[in-house]
Amino acid sequence: MRWATIICLRLRSLFSRAKVEQELDEELRYHLEREIDAGVAASMTPEDAHYTALRSIRDIEQRKEECRDMRGLNLIENAARDIRFAIRGLRREPEFAFASIASLTLAIGMATTVFTAVNTVLLRPLNLPDPDRLALLWGEEAGGDTRAVVSFADFEDWRRNSHVFSAAAAYTNYYKPVLTGGSRPERLSGLRVSHGFFDVLKAQPALGRFFLPEEDWDGRDDVVVLSHSLWRERFRSNVGIVGQRILLDGRPLTVVGVAGPDLKPLPRSIGGDVPQIYRPVGEERGEKSRDGRHLQAIVRLKPGVTISQAQAELSVLCRRMEHLHPDTDAKLAVRVVGIRDDLTRNLRGGLIGLQLAVLAVLLIACANVANLLLARSIGRQRETAVRAALGAGVWRLARMFLAESVLLGLIAGAGGVALAFLSSTVLRTASADVFPDASDFPLDFRVLAFAAVVAIGTSLLFGMAPVWQIITSGTEEALRNGGRRIAGDRRQILRRLLGMGQIAIALVLLISAGLLTDSFLRLRAVSPGFDPRQVLTAGVTLPSMRYPTDANRAVFFEQLLERLRTIPGVSQAALVTPLPMSGDFDTTLIEIPGRSIADEERNSPDRYVVSPDYFAMLKIPLLQGRLFDDHDDAAHKDVALISQTAARVLWPGESPIGKKVRAGSASGDFYRSPYREIVGVVGDVAQYGLGLPSRPQIYMPHAQFADRFVTLLLRAKNTDPISLAAPLRRAVLAADAEQPIYDVIPFQSLVDGSLAARRFAVWMLIAFALGALALAASGIYGVISYTVAQRTQEFGIRMALGASPSNVLRDALAMGVPMIVSGIIAGLLGSFAASRFLHAFLFGASSIDLSSFAGVPVGMILVALAACYVPARRAAKMEPLLALRQE
Fold it and tell me: Does 466 sit behind a cis peptide bond, omega within 30 degrees of 0 on the bond before it?
C-alpha cells in the first residue's frame, strides 16, 4: 500500500511539473511577442527589438531553470518532457506529420516485409531436432554435377568407416505407392529409407518398431512404417495395426510400426511432400548397388564435429574407395553440406539483393524526411536562436529535435509493422513456388526487433540533418534575419545533396527494374518447343504386381488412350514420360556402332517414351524423316526419334536418318538393349527451363518401351482444361478400379511456374523502384518548396519591381535543374555498376540496355520537373505585398 501511494504521488508530481513548464513556455512566448511588438512600435530595428525581448524575458528563463533544478528531473523525465513537446509540435503541423510518417511507414513496411522472408528462409531455425548438426552428402564428380545422387554401396562404405557421424541414412522421395483394399484407391506420398533414417531425425515409434539393418536389402524390404497422420486418418488409430498386411501397388506389405507425432518431415525441397508412409530402400547386395546412383544421403554429426572436419574425413575415404573400386568410383568425390546451406543455396543471393534494394528505398525515405524537417525548421530558427541565447546548450537543442525525430520513427515503425503484417499474406501467396519450404512468414521477435532497430536508426539518421544545420547556425544572424536565408547560402548544399541522392538511388532501382523486366519478358517469349496451352496433364503409375510386362502395360495404356479420346471436350490424347518442364527427367547412355562417344553431352541425352500422337498434340515440329505410328509396336523393328541438337552433336554434317543407336541404363542390361533405327528428327523442347541450352534428346515409342510411370495429356477443345479432370479420373477408374491419378495440372501452369522465381524478383524490384520514385518526387518537392520559402521576399521584391510571373516561374524551376542533372549523372554511374552485378540474371538483354539507360532517365527528369513545377507555380502566383510582409 505504501509503494502504491508513492507511485501515485510521483505520477501526480510529474504531471503537475509538466503543467508548470507548459505555463512557463506560454508565458515566455507571450513576453517575447509583446516585447518585439513594443520594439517595432517604437521604430526600433528588428535586431534591437529582438535583443530588447531577450533582456525582458531573461528572468522568465531563469525561473524555468530554477524550476528544473528544484524538481531534479532525471533522464527519463527529461525524455518524457521532450516527447510531450514533440507531440505538441506535430499536432500543430499535421500536414508535416502526415507526410513524414507516410514516407517512413512505406519504407519501413517494405523493409520489414522483405526481412520477414529473409528471417523465414535464412534465419529461422528449421523444424527439425538439432538442425545445425544435420548435413547432406552429395556426390561430386570431376567436371560434373556438384549435387549428384549417390549409390547405396558407396553410402554404406561412408557410414561404416566414418567416425564423425552419430547417425546416417540414405533415402529417395521417388516413392508414391497406391494404397488399395479400402473404399477407394489412394496414392500416398512416401520415402524409401535406410534403417538409420529415424535415428538421424531422433524419432521414436508410437507403435511397433522402425526398420532393421537387414531390411535395407532387396527381398527383405516387404515391411512399412506408417506416419502418425496416416495411421490416425486412414486406419482410425487402430492400435492393432502392427503385424497386419496392407496392399501397396498390389503388393502385400507388413506394417511393423507407426511413427510418433514427433517425427518432423524433411524440408520439401530435399524430402518432397510430407511422407505418409516409409519403406526400406530395398537395394541389391554387393557391387550391383555401387553404380546405381539414385539416393540422397543425410547424416547427423557428432557433437563438436564441424562440416570441414567431416569433409576432410570423407575425402580420405573417397581416395581409398578409388583404389578399391576403380571401375565405379574412379572420379567420385563427396561434398558435405549443412542442411540450411543446401536449402538456401539458390535463395540467399536473391534475398540479399532484395534487402539491398529496400535499403535504398529506406535511404530515400530518410533523405525525404530530413528535407521535410529542414523545411520545417525555417520557422523554428528564431525560437532555437532564442533558446541558445538564453543558455540552452548544444545537447539540449539536439535532444529537442532528436526527440521529435525518434517520435516520428517510432510511429512509422508501428505503421511499418502493421503494413508488413498485411503484406505477409500477399508475400506468402506470391512466393509459394519460390520458397517451397516456407508455409508462413510470421512476424516473430526477430522481425519486430529489426523493425524497431530500423525505426530508431532511421529516425536518428534523418534527425541529424536539422540538428546539424541549427547547431551550426549563428544565433545573432538567426535573430537578425528571422529565419530567412539568402538564395546563395552555402548551407543549402546539404538539402540539395539529399535531393540529388534521392534521384540517384531511385534511378538505380528504376534502371535495374527495367533491365530485369526486359529480361523477363524476353524469357517469357521464348518458345519451349511445344504448345502447352489448353493441355491438361495427369500422372499414372501402374503397379508392377498387376502389370509385370511391357506388353501388359502397353495394352492398358493403348486402351486407356482410346477411352480418353471419347471424352466430350477432348480433341487429342497422348502420353509421355517424363513430362517436359515438370522437374522430372530421365537420361540414358547411348552407343553408336563403330564409334566411341566420350564426352558427357554425347553420352547421356534426355530420354522420352511417348505415344504416336504426342508430337502432333504438342505441335512439336518434324524436321526430317517421319514420326511414330501405330505400326511401331513390339512386333516390328525397334525405332527411335532424336532432337535437332542430338542430330547435330551425334552426326555432325550428315543425315541421321537410318543410323543405328543403342540406348539404355548404365548396368549390365545396357548391352542387351537392342539397336534402334533413327527414323526422324524433331525440334528441341525445353526440359529443365526456358532459355537454357538445348541438350540432345532421344524418343522411343511406348509400345516398344512401355514404362510404368507415364503422364497423360489431354488437349481441351474450346474449354478450360481443368474441367477435364473429373471425366479423366472417371475414365481411368473405369479402366482399372484400383488405379488413381495424381498431379492433375494444366500444362501451361508448369511452364509459368518455371519462371516463378524471376517473376517474383521482378515484381518486388518494380514495387521498390516505384516506391523510390514516389519518395524521390516528394523529396524534390520538399527541397524546392524549402528554397522557394526562403526566397519569398526576394520574389516579392522582384515582382514589385516589374518581374513577370513567367520569369519567377522560370527562375524557381531553374533552382531544381542542377540537383536533377547531378542526380541523374550519379544515378547513371551507379546503374552501370549495378548492371554488372545483374548481368548473370539477364537473358537475351545487354547489361547496358539502351531503352533502360535512355528511357528511364528521361522519365525520371519529367517526374522531377513535375515535382519542381508545383512550388514554382506557387511562387509565380504569390501577391508581391504579401510576400514583402511575410516573416
Answer: no
For the cut 90, the answer to whether the pLDDT of residue 452 exceeds it is: no
Closest by alpha carbon to 188, among 270, 279, 56? 279
**Is pTM, for the whole model, over 0.90?**
no
- 14-18, 166-170, 685-689, 839-843 — which one is most confidently predicted on average? 166-170
Phi then psi for 504, rounded to 5 degrees?
Answer: -65, -45
Closest CA to 260 of 204, 209, 210, 189: 204
Q: Which residue has the cell 525505426?
A: 455
Cβ-contact 318, 161 below 8 angstroms: no
Rounded Cα gap, residues 734 and 506, in angstroms: 61
> What is d(CA 360, CA 24) in angstroms, rounded to the nearest whole number?
44
Sole residue written with cell 518447343: 529
Identify which of 83, 19, 26, 89 has the alpha carbon closest to the alpha carbon of residue 60. 26
Local structure of residue 295 (DSSP, 8 states): B
Cβ contacts of residue 8 below 8 Å, gap of 6+? none
Q: How far apart are CA 753 and CA 479, in angstroms?
A: 66
Q: Are 360 and 768 in contact (CB under 8 A)?
A: yes
What cell was used for 370?
530530413
**SS3 label, residue 546:** coil
Residue 194 CA to residue 150 CA, distance in Å, equals 13
Tens-digit pLDDT profile for residues 708-733: 889 999 999 888 899 999 999 999 99
The three cell numbers of residue 10 are 510521483
Q: How many CB atoms lie within 10 A of CB 689?
A: 15
C-alpha of 513 from chain center: 15
